[in-house]
DNA sequence: GGTAATAACATGTCATAACAAGTTAGAAAA
DNA sequence: TTTTCTAACTTGTTATGACATGTTATTACC
């Protein structure tokens, strides 16, 4: 594990990585039964505890689930985004070992509608840049992203590779330090255009995310709609019960 | 918290709960060294693997961290950077001048399925109380709430008015101080039952909210599914861009 | 007193083994 | 043919044991 000489990985991590790769490559379809612990012991020539340790990690990462007496099954990959901080989709997914990519559908200068004007604090005559992309998770379309940028930001994007994340681009190449984002979530039916891009039926549920991102000076720099497939996306977060609310008549559900 | 016949818990879970309680009570200050595995083996009279399994779970919950050669230490209490308080539904709506109400569909004692067992940390034979309600906004159904309570909480609900919020009921009448809640959001199609209760078409999008609420001692007290009409509900919150991530090559969207 | 070596301590990895508990396929009985 | 029972299979828990690796205290030497 010191610099050269292929770092020796513990067996359980090697097994975990092998199985994870197989799952992500689709060797095991969602809900398909995987080899038993006994079979894995034999095929990897290791003890059961080593296999279990690998399986336990895979379970913790949500890639498998196990039922006593039945066996181990591949989970349906589900993108889950933690809402603790403004974290990009790609970053969140890559940290889980999923492969992400994005495909630019279009980029153009537009006359912003009222909503975009209000959000970006601009006028119609200022113009704005609209970027539409489809994002992929493990090569399957998962979201259609429609982003609007004020011209002083947007005009720099025409010459950039938009097949990857925009946030680091804004920060690292345009030197725009990002700050707060306002986010809203709704469940909506997919319209025909989105349904087509996401390879689903019109009317099926999507998670409709609106996000307005500011720089650290609170200037709006990016207003976007993200339409995620409902069956492939989940938001997750923690909240605390605020103490002072207990004195009121409200609160809870 | 389990008053009657304490169901037999695996040793590692008992040890984990004991240590967790000690940590949360402040017996070990943040970063303070905890007993070694060897000492825990002796004090609990179990094998090392049983101790390690308990420690592994505590580590996974963020309560401890371990360093090879040094030992095991209490973590700094997660100062949950709460995105924003989940504003109580009723409060949020009432502050906007909307009229809210809830109608009890059913309350019954059930044998909890595996998911509910896991979430409420109970066994099937413990039973649980299931409460199903429809919530109204300005007299139109907006959500179907299915809540599960462990028996020591749930049995008190049979004699209560469930036409109003449960959280203040739990806090003010049952003296259960509420703490953290884990929440996840998904867009899903409404099944026939929910569609009927919400007066919508089967398959239309709903916002599927899963919420596990704990008391301040981290005991789970309420596990619920909230199915909101997609066309009548929106989640909104703020997040900050985390500074340290800008140094990476990933991030953004 | 400072430095190096060694021993003791502590967690990390892995093996073998056994029993508990849940599921299912196949055999036997009705 | 259908139902019941049992053996085989499968995961869950726990024990004992050994070696690897990292840290720290102690001892020996200069």
Topology record:
The structure is a homodimer of 253-residue chains.
Chain A: H1 11-24, H2 37-44, H3 48-60, E1 64-67, E2 71-74, E3 79-82, H4 89-94, E4 100-110, H5 114-120, E5 128-137, E6 140-150, H6 151-154, H7 167-173, E7 178-189, H8 192-197, E8 205-215, E9 220-229, E10 233-240
Parallel strand pairs in A: 3-10
Antiparallel strand pairs in A: 1-2, 4-5, 5-6, 6-9, 7-8, 8-9
Helix pairs in contact in A: 1-3, 2-3
The first copy, chain A, binds a DNA duplex (30 and 30 nucleotides) through helix 3.
Task: Supply the number of structural domains of chain A.
Answer: 2
The quaternary organization reads as: homodimer
Count of beta strands of chain A: 10
Structural class of chain A: alpha+beta
Named at the architecture level, the CATH assignment of the largest domain in chain A is 3-Layer(aba) Sandwich
- CATH homologous superfamily of the largest domain in chain A - what is it? Chorismate lyase-like
Amount of helix of chain A: 25-40%
Largest sheet of chain A: 6 strands, antiparallel
The CATH class assignment of the largest domain in chain A is Alpha Beta
> What order do the SSEs of chain A take from the amino end to the carboxyl end, as H and E?
HHHEEEHEHEEHHEHEEE
- What percentage of amino acids of chain A are in beta strands? 25-35%
Task: Choose one word for the global shape of chain A.
Answer: elongated
CATH fold title of the largest domain in chain A = Chorismate lyase
Q: Measured on Cα atoms, how large is the radius of gyration of chain A?
A: 22 Å
Low-confidence stretches of chain A: 1-7, 243-253
């Amino acid at each position: 594990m010191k610099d050269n000489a292929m770092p020796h990985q513990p067996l359980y991590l090697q097994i975990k990585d092998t199985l994870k790769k197989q799952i992500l490559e689709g060797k095991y379809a969602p809900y398909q039964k995987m080899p038993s612990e006994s079979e894995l012991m034999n095929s990897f020539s290791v003890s059961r505890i080593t296999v279990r340790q690998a399986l336990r990690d895979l379970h913790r990462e949500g890639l498998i689930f196990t039922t006593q007496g039945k066996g181990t099954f591949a989970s349906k990959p589900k993108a889950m985004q933690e809402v603790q901080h403004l974290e990009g989709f790609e970053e969140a997914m890559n940290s889980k070992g999923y492969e992400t990519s994005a495909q630019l559908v279009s980029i153009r200068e537009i006359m912003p509608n009222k909503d975009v004007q209000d959000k970006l604090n601009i006028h119609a005559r200022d113009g704005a840049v609209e970027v539409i992309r489809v994002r992929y998770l493990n090569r399957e379309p998962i979201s259609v992203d429609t982003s609007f940028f004020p011209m002083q930001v947007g005009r720099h994007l025409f010459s950039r590779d938009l097949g990857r994340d925009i946030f680091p681009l804004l920060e690292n190449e345009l030197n725009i330090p990002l700050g707060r984002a306002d986010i809203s979530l709704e469940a909506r039916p997919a319209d025909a255009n989105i349904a087509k891009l996401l390879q689903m039926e019109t009317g099926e549920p999507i998670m409709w995310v609106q996000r307005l991102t500011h720089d650290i000076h609170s200037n709006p720099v990016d207003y976007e709609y993200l339409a995620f497939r409902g069956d492939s996306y989940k938001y997750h977060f923690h909240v605390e019960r605020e103490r002072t609310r207990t004195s009121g008549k409200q609160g809870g559900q």
